[in-house]
Amino acid sequence: MTLPTGVSRIGLAIVILFTLAAIFAPALTHLLGQNPYDPVVPAGVIPPTPPGPSHPLGTDSLGRDLLARLLYGARISLSVGVMAEGVALLLGLLIGGAAGLYGGRVDEILMRLADIFFSLPAPLVALAVIAALPDPSTLPGLRHLPEPSLVVVFLVLGLIGWAGIARLVRGQILVLRELDYTAAARALGAGDGRLLMRHLLPNALAPVLATATLGVAGNILAEAWLSFLGVGAHPPLPSWGIMITEGQNYLTTHPWLCIYPGLALLLSVLGLNLFGDGLREGLDPRLQVARQ
Question: For residue 142, is it within any domain?
Fold first, then answer.
């Protein structure tokens, strides 16, 4: 599989850049001598301060280095996006695979359930569910985790985002189960579980991976939106949504407080979308033939 030339490779480069920034955020901030949580503005100086030699992107309203917070914000956005899509992918593969393999009443029930989830306004449902939950740090199963609020966000986004993947997997399985190698596996004694896990799902993954890449971008946007409204990541976590919320009161006087996290959000989602489109074209033989 090769990515088509052009914008999809630009998307891949953007994804790699943000991934490296997220992975090496502690080392990069240590190299810069900054901390995303501690104020760095000298006594007598009223934050926020504009970009300068000591702080290339300036400081926020509490005097914290904006570049350090952006780097750590990449860790939050990418981790929530990937983990939420991992939950959706797991549910979508299992439910869509079962619906396509068994057909009949099982298919009917599972697909009607998927239709219900698919018709829900996912951002509003996520907002309502997360807002209705008690403080995550007080929940028995979450209180000992490093960031309970982020765990709740990616679990909710994953649990309501599986329907599209399930429908896609179901369509792939309906085609694959009629092929000769499926009949051969049945003849050799493969049970339903082995047939699904070893023979059908691996061959149905190509379009699913491209869809999952686009889903990560959607989850990043959803996390930023929820944090902007105050029900996602909790301060002082450097979520890009929180940073935009904290900077909106300074939009006319210190616009960089909103511009930089907004640009980071824009570029990361754009890169994932471009890469996802290229991945879909690279994995789909029909699209490859159409380009030739």
Answer: yes
270 Cβ contact partners less than 8 Å away, ≥ 6 residues apart: 11, 14
Dist. CA 200–CA 189, nearest whole Å: 15
Give SS3 for 177.
Answer: coil
- Give me the helix-helix angle, 163-176 and 104-119, nearest 10°: 150
Domain membership of residue 282 as a residue range: 7-26+65-291
Residue 252: DSSP 8-state: T
**Total number of domains constituting the chain:** 1
Convert the pLDDT of each residue in 207-244 to its tens digit: 898 889 999 999 999 999 999 998 888 888 999 999 99
Nearest Cα to Cα of residue 67 among 57, 52, 77:
57
* Ranges under pLDDT 70 in the chain: 1-5, 284-292
Question: What's the predicted TM-score (pTM) here?
Answer: 0.89
The confidence score (pLDDT) of residue 290 equals 45
Measure the CA–CA gap between 287 and 245, rounded to whole angstroms: 42
State residue 157's pLDDT score: 94
The two structure tokens encoding residue 75:
């860790």
**Whole-number pLDDT of residue 27:** 95
Asked if 61 and 47 count as a contact pair (C-beta separation under 8 A), the reply is: yes
Whole-number Å distance between alpha carbons of 41 and 290 = 57
- Tell me, what DSSP letter sits at residue 141? T
Nearest to 39 by CA among 72, 69, 75, 77: 69
> Whose CA is closest to 35, among 26, 44, 47?
26
Residue 68 near residue 236 (C-beta atoms within 8 A): no
CATH number at residue 166: 1.10.3720.10
